[in-house]
């Protein structure tokens, strides 16, 4: 019998929040593209799959009865009804990945983030992404050409409210360069993974 030390690292639940237009979606996509040990959180929904959508990749598609069963059993970290369908974050998907050493990326607003803080604060590493300035945020929203002037003003007002919550996050970064921001968050993720390293002795022949 030979004693062999094995090192196990638990995954990190990486929560990203930002105002609309601050670059969260682009940063998330690049992080997932570059990391082999990071997966996107897959939500659960009661709506029907759209053409091309894959169960377990795009969403977990379930019946409304099953969805409510999971909610009652405490297996949904957060859920909401959007129009006639329910959407939620399944606890099992996240906890299984974390226990297997795989980090999970969750891109949500500050309200969703705060709810997660209450449920599993020790597992969460949160990053708030700021735009370089409110003027730059305005320009980014205008370049989208998807919203009229009144909607842009509404989004900017909402952004001010969201930004005021940034001090509750573990890290705050300014996204004035996408690649730099991705590198910064990758460094945060690696640092937090190292914190979670655990040494567990195991006996092997």
Automatic annotation (TrEMBL):
Keywords: ATP-binding, Cytoplasm, Kinase, Nucleotide-binding, Transferase
Catalytic activity: GMP + ATP = GDP + ADP
Principal location: cytoplasm
Subcellular location: Cytoplasm
Nucleotide-binding keyword on record: yes
UniProt xrefs under PANTHER family: GUANYLATE KINASE, GUANYLATE KINASE-RELATED
Function according to Swiss-Prot or TrEMBL: Essential for recycling GMP and indirectly, cGMP.
Name recorded for this polypeptide: Guanylate kinase
Species for this entry: Wolbachia endosymbiont of Sergentomyia squamirostris
Gene: gmk
């Amino acid at each position: 019998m030979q004693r062999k030390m094995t090192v196990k690292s638990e995954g990190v639940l990486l929560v990203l929040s930002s105002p609309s237009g601050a670059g969260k979606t682009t940063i998330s996509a690049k992080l997932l593209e570059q990391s082999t040990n990071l997966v996107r959180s897959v939500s659960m929904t009661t709506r029907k799959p759209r053409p091309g959508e894959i169960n377990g990749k795009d969403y977990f598609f379930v019946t409304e009865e099953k969805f409510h069963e999971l909610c009652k059993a405490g297996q949904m970290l957060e859920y909401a009804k959007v129009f006639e369908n329910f959407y939620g974050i399944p606890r099992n998907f996240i906890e299984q990945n974390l226990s297997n050493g795989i980090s999970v990326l969750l891109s949500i607003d500050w309200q969703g983030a705060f709810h997660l803080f209450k449920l599993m604060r020790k597992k969460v590493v949160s990053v708030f992404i700021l735009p370089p300035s409110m003027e730059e945020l305005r320009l980014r929203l205008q370049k989208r050409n998807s919203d009229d002037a009144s909607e842009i003003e509404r989004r900017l007002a909402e952004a001010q409210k969201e930004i005021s919550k940034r001090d509750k996050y573990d890290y705050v970064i300014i996204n004035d360069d996408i690649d730099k921001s991705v590198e910064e968050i990758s460094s945060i993720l690696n640092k937090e993974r190292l914190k979670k390293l655990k040494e567990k002795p195991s006996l092997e022949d």
